[in-house]
């Protein structure tokens, strides 16, 4: 029988602490919010790295200020329609507009940092069963529509919009969002954004958290957060 090897607990704790310390940290995101009577405007710079093979955003979670709610509108559009033919969605299912810039890295030469920066105009749709669907068409390196799916979670008077960012590979390029600007609600989606309660003197606080999937080197970047306040 082979002799057993015992590793002191303190050594194990030190080992895992060193692994955690070695996890790369992406730069903190930049986040701002504007709030009007019937709309919510969000601006997010994810600080995607300038070199290839690094962090890939996998989830964007936006915690709304207390009393701010995202509801629903009368019409919905199915996920398959949004992805393949968004122009066929009912006009009343549109709940927002925006724009985005992507950081796209060549998967096969990550060390050389072959990067392109495609842009998208965002159209947000009210999906079935409360799903929030963001259609982001790109033209580089090939025409394709990237679909982001979100859900609104509620706990008491706190709402949170959680957006899943899928792994997207187009013609050898991995896409990760670098900049997002999104306005929800407004005249075309009356009632989608509502607010209640008194506004604090310092403004209404919103928080965003970014989570990442493992990068090309196998490292798992730590989550990053940013806080913004919307003026009353």
Short summary:
The protein is mainly β. It is built from 2 helices and 15 strands. It is globular and about 55 Å long.
Task: Identify the notable features of this structure and list them briefly.
single chain; 232 residues; mainly beta; two-stranded antiparallel sheet; globular
Describe the structure.
It is a single chain. Helices cover 9% and strands 47% of the residues. The chain has 232 residues and is mostly beta strands. It has one domain (45-213). Strands 1, 2, 3, 5, 6, 7, 8, 9, 10, 11, 12, 14 and 15 form a 13-stranded antiparallel sheet that branches. Strands 4-13 form a two-stranded antiparallel sheet. It is globular and about 55 Å long. It starts with 8 loop residues before the first helix and ends with a strand. The relative contact order is 0.26.
How many domains make up the 3D coordinates? 1
Residue share in β-strands:
over 45%
Order of SSEs, N→C?
Answer: HEEEEHEEEEEEEEEEE
Output mean pLDDT.
83
Query: What structural category arises from helix and sheet content?
Result: mainly beta
Question: In terms of quaternary structure, what is this?
Answer: single chain
Can you tell me the overall shape? globular
The separation of the N and C termini measures: 73 Å
